[in-house]
Amino acid sequence: MPSSKHTYDPAPAPPSQGVKEEHVEYGFIGKLQALKYEYRPDIRDRASLQRNFREKFEALNRVHLSDGEFARLLEEICTSDVYTAARTLRDRNAFIREGYIRFKKQKDSTEVAAIATKHSLSAAALQGLVDGVLQRLILDSDALSDLMAPLQLSWKARAQAEAALMADVAPLLRKRAQGREIAGLSAYE
């Protein structure tokens, strides 16, 4: 958007005792301009404000956001508290794109499916165990036993199979927990 050279001059004071809102607004805009803020007469409503924000965000970050990504960005940063919104924008280093999210989910499920196949387990059941552990940050030994039950192994063979499975699953859980501790995981390390 081209910068505006238009400046506001305060309106002459009215002869009445009261102060009109229009005069307060003009004075406020003038003070902001003195602080090097640019007056944008083209931004009159929320839609034009969002359009301007999208243009600036895309230009500064050298990206083109889909409508869904832009809606998610607005949902994440827009609050009634302008200071919280500013802090959110300042503290964020990245905005995760939809394509990356799909790629990551597919990669994660492929990784779990490969481990399940290696250990003759249901990929959906193993994914359920992994999701449950990451949600609660607790490795439930009963859930692990239930996962192994369809294999109908003796207690000794099941213990060995659980140890072998956890040798593959533990690194995956540690990576996905992103530094958070998982209770019960140390028993398999």
Explain this structure to me?
This protein has 189 residues and is mostly helical. It folds into 2 domains: 71 residues, no CATH class; 91 residues, no CATH class. Helices cover 62% and strands 0% of the residues. The chain is elongated. The N and C termini lie far apart (58 Å).
Strand fraction equals under 5%
Structural class: mainly alpha
Distance between the termini: 58 Å
Q: What is the element string, with H for helices and E for strands? A: HHHHHHHH
CA-atom Rg in angstroms: 28 Å
Give the gist of this structure:
62% of the residues lie in helices and 0% in strands. It has 189 residues and is mostly helical.
What's the arrangement of secondary structure elements?
Layout: H1 21-34, H2 46-61, H3 67-77, H4 82-91, H5 98-118, H6 123-136, H7 141-148, H8 155-177
Helix pairs in contact: 5-6
Describe this protein with a few key phrases.
189 residues, mainly alpha, 2 domains, elongated
